[in-house]
Structures are given as structure tokens and as C-alpha cells.
Design brief:
single chain; elongated
Length: about 70
């Protein structure tokens, strides 16, 4: 769905200003490459927080604690 919205937005930009649309088309791969390290950092921190959460809740899981219904 995001791809379709991006494509429709690019088509509207193409109709309104074709030079700007072509610049956006050329610059998109470079922007994607620049943001790639930040995505990897985000995934790393998310995994680290999941590990810490699992370690903290391990005693409760061992003793069979259940959330009240």
C-alpha cells in the first residue's frame, strides 16, 4: 500500500513539475542508502530491548505467572 501511495504521489508530482519528479526519481536511491544505517541501528536496539525484556520476565515465566483475565 505504501508503494502505491508513493507511486500516485510521484505521478501527481510528475504532472505538476516534471523536472522535480525526475530529480526525486534520481535521488531516491541515494536517500535510501543514507537511511540504511539508521534502520539497522533501529533493528539492533529493538532486538536488544526484546532481549532485556525476555531476561527480566524470565523468572515470572519459570514460576508460571499468568496475566489476570
Amino acid at each position: 500500500m505504501k508503494t502505491l501511495i508513493a507511486f500516485v504521489g510521484w505521478c501527481i508530482l510528475l504532472v505538476l513539475s516534471w523536472p522535480l519528479a525526475l530529480v526525486a526519481l534520481v535521488l531516491f536511491p541515494f536517500v535510501w542508502l543514507v537511511t540504511l544505517p539508521f534502520r539497522l541501528l533501529g533493528m539492533t536496539f529493538e532486538a536488544l530491548l526484546a532481549l532485556v525484556s525476555a531476561i527480566l520476565f524470565l523468572p515470572a515465566r519459570i514460576f508460571g505467572w499468568r496475566k489476570p483475565a
